[in-house]
From TrEMBL:
<keyword id="KW-0472">Membrane</keyword>
<feature type="transmembrane region" description="Helical">
    <location>
        <begin position="166"/>
        <end position="188"/>
    </location>
</feature>
<keyword id="KW-0812">Transmembrane</keyword>
<dbReference type="GO" id="GO:0005886">
    <property type="term" value="C:plasma membrane"/>
</dbReference>
<feature type="transmembrane region" description="Helical">
    <location>
        <begin position="232"/>
        <end position="251"/>
    </location>
</feature>
<keyword id="KW-1133">Transmembrane helix</keyword>
<feature type="transmembrane region" description="Helical">
    <location>
        <begin position="80"/>
        <end position="98"/>
    </location>
</feature>
<feature type="transmembrane region" description="Helical">
    <location>
        <begin position="104"/>
        <end position="123"/>
    </location>
</feature>
<protein>
    <submittedName>
        <fullName>Major Facilitator Superfamily protein</fullName>
    </submittedName>
</protein>
<dbReference type="InterPro" id="IPR036259">
    <property type="entry name" value="MFS_trans_sf"/>
</dbReference>
<dbReference type="InterPro" id="IPR051337">
    <property type="entry name" value="OPA_Antiporter"/>
</dbReference>
<feature type="transmembrane region" description="Helical">
    <location>
        <begin position="135"/>
        <end position="154"/>
    </location>
</feature>
<feature type="transmembrane region" description="Helical">
    <location>
        <begin position="12"/>
        <end position="28"/>
    </location>
</feature>
<keyword id="KW-0813">Transport</keyword>
<dbReference type="GO" id="GO:0061513">
    <property type="term" value="F:glucose 6-phosphate:phosphate antiporter activity"/>
</dbReference>
<feature type="transmembrane region" description="Helical">
    <location>
        <begin position="40"/>
        <end position="59"/>
    </location>
</feature>
<feature type="transmembrane region" description="Helical">
    <location>
        <begin position="271"/>
        <end position="289"/>
    </location>
</feature>
């Protein structure tokens, strides 16, 4: 296998493992809404306490975003995602075997902490293994594949719970998370040089390595974003749209349709699944479109604005997804 083929093979392998971890993240984000009735009955939860349980994921996720950036730069994506997947797997097991509400909350907290590191690490890895001109497409593809985790947390999870139990479902997801952690530890590399491969820029004949930047460049990119009014316009707009969407699709939508419209749990999950799938497909389309219509001369500033806008949008979505 020549260097070009080896490079392309391994970058997709690495991305595939990391995005699989992101699927688990989105599954846990959306699964709580499907399990609302089961959890409220078994643990005697009120609507307020259930909302707090759902929000535990979001709060821990939000708080971890800045530390995650530091971990991605210091430990690297490989170790960070490996540890995060282990923590999330333990959290999933904890929820599945929870004897009381306190342990249930602890499990949800661990899940949120574990999966919170994945998305940022994917962005970090993309900057090392893919070119800046592919960033929008890859980000959209990442969100699309991750969205499939939300799809799995609808009708498929409803069927699994009816056939087995919600505890069994969390056990399966815990095992899956640990398997992904093992794959990440064995196969994922932070950058091509860790495998003795040249950078993407070197393969393309570009002597400058724009993706392999230091902390000073990161801070410069962040400063550019903070000074750009379009950044804040994008974050505010997306947070407004997504607050209602995420609250509906991840927590309350299924129960609302069952209680208000009297439809079955499976049918309600099917409706939510369509919403999640539409969001996933839209992510791919917009990501590809953004790379297609981009000017041929793409500056460093444009790349970092795209990166931090996407990251900011993601953080805001997680913050507001469980607003009651």
């Amino acid at each position: 296998m020549n260097i070009n083929k080896k490079f392309k093979y391994y970058r997709w392998l690495i991305w595939g493992i990391l995005v699989s971890a992101y699927v688990i993240s989105q599954f846990h984000r959306n699964a709580i809404g499907v399990l609302r009735e089961d959890l409220m009955i078994e643990f005697g939860l009120s609507s307020t306490l259930f909302a707090s349980l759902a929000a535990t994921y979001s709060y821990s996720y939000m708080i971890m975003q800045i530390p995650t950036g530091l971990l991605a730069d210091s430990l690297g994506a490989k170790k960070t995602v490996t540890i995060g997947s282990i923590v999330a797997g333990i959290g999933s097991f904890t929820m599945g075997f929870a004897p009381n509400v306190v342990v249930l909350f602890m499990g949800r907290l661990l899940v949120g902490l574990g999966v919170s590191v994945i998305f940022v690490c994917i962005l970090k890895t993309q900057s090392q293994w893919f070119s800046a001109s592919e960033f929008g497409t890859m980000a959209g593809l990442t969100l699309f594949i991750g969205g499939l985790g939300g799809v799995l947390a609808q009708t498929p999870l409803t069927v699994m719970v009816s056939m087995f139990s919600w505890r069994f479902s969390f056990g399966v997801m815990g095992i899956t998370g640990l398997i992904i952690a093992l794959l990440c530890h064995v196969f994922v590399r932070n950058k091509p040089s860790d495998m003795g491969l040249p950078s993407f820029e070197a393969l393309e004949g570009n002597t400058s390595n724009d993706s392999n930047v230091g902390k000073s460049f990161l801070m410069k990119g962040l400063a550019v974003v903070l000074r750009n009014p379009n950044t804040w316009a994008a974050i505010i707009t997306f947070s407004g749209f997504t607050a209602a969407l995420s609250s509906f699709s991840a927590v309350w939508g299924r129960s609302y349709m069952v209680d208000v419209y009297g439809i079955s749990k499976v049918d309600a999950s099917n409706y939510i699944m369509i919403v999640v799938l539409g969001l996933a497909l839209g992510s791919v389309a917009i990501g590809k479109l953004s790379d297609t219509i981009k000017k041929e001369k793409t500056t460093y500033d444009n790349f970092w604005i795209s990166k931090y806008c996407l990251l900011g949008y993601h953080c805001v979505c997680q913050r507001w997804q469980t607003t009651d």
